[in-house]
Every structure is written in C-alpha cells, then in structure tokens.
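User: quick one - fold this with iron/sulfur cluster bound?
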Amino acid sequence: MSTEHEDGQKPRVGIFYCGGAMSSVGELTHEAAFEVLKQLGPQEVGMGCVSALAAGVPNHFETMQNQEKVLVIDGCPNSCVRRIVKEKGAKMDAYINFGNDLGIEKKGPFKPLSYSQEDFERAVDGVTAKIRDMEGSSE
Ligand code: SF4
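Assistant: Sure. Structure tokens for the protein plus iron/sulfur cluster:
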C-alpha cells in the first residue's frame, strides 16, 4: 500500500480549486492558488485534487478530510467544486467564488489565458484574505 499520503507534510489549509481550463476564471483559480502557495509556503497551504475527489479515490479523500481547514475555490457561478464537495460529503470550511465574490469576469470558451493582471491580483488577494480569515477563526 502506498504511504504517499501518510508521510506527506500537513499544511494548515488545504485548497480545492476548480481549475476549469476552458475559461479565464477557471484557469485563474489554478494560477492564483499556486501564487498563494508560493507566497505563504507549503506549511500554510496545500493543494487537493478535485479530479480524485470526484472519482472517489479514497486516499485523496481521507487526506483532505484530515486537514485542519479546507478552502474551496470556484471560478464562476456554476460552482463546480462546491457541488462536488457537497455530493461527496467532503470537508469545506470556507468558500470563495471569483465571479460572485470578487466580480471577476468569465471569458471563454477556450480563453484560459484571457484574464488581466488586475484580475490575477484581485484573485490572489481574495484567496489570501480568505486564508487569513480561516487562520484567525481557528485561534
Ligand atoms: S466553476 Fe466555472 S470556471 Fe470552474 S470548472 Fe466550473 S464552470 Fe469552469
């Protein structure tokens, strides 16, 4: 049996992002989440795998259930990850939707790189603020 998930380090906040590659806001969830990982470091944040969650892979499910906190990020009002998380009964402590909460315009289909620098900065700031809120609420 693989010990990959047992031996891995445990960040304070696990993130599920939609990564919807067909549109600007979906791709932005990926870009912003990884920028936050670079800025805060792996002790603070770690990425979950939404595809594995949707597919029902047990190791991935358990790993994310065992995180102290889980943040779910969706790019647009379709709210795909929130729906998957609810359907699978997975952990979600906080939620941010780039369309509904940050007012970032969705461009697509097949325009994953059509977001502006301002969109990127707003997304990174929004995710960072949400993580800071989550950390504050656990003290
Ligand atoms: S939430 Fe929106 S951007 Fe993300 S995967 Fe679903 S449809 Fe695509």
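One thing worth noting: The chain has a mean pLDDT of 93.
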